[in-house]
Protein: tRNA-specific adenosine deaminase
Organism: Chitinophaga cymbidii
Amino acid sequence: MMNMMNDEHFMRQALQEARKALEKDEVPIGAVVVMDGQIIGRGFNQVEMLTDCTAHAEMIALTAAFNYLGSKYLMDATLYVTLEPCVMCAGALYWSKIGRIVYAAPDEKNGYRRVTGDKSPFHPKTKVETGLCGEESLQLVKGFFSGKRK
């Protein structure tokens, strides 16, 4: 029960990051990296702001965590992200050896599963969980894109 409460707390932090992206007119995806109950990296999509197609929320949060720890590995950390990581981010997560990934909602169009199917692209020891705050995350993304189509 305690883990679920912590998971929801940290996913809500990732949703706050997604809202920061929304405020900057970026696709609203947010991420936090947590270790020992402490956020050690935060990120939100900054692709348009930085004119950098690699500036995804996960990549920014990972870089912040690496810098915080002074390490390139995150075996004891959890990434909370509001949308299923893409293949690029999945590759970075593989190399980070992150211990756990919790993502809120699937991304049928650009998520890693579109390419990998049922085969996990993550490190063999990485645990993956999905669905926490999924509807809230999807509503942010759908609202963003419906606003663009007007």
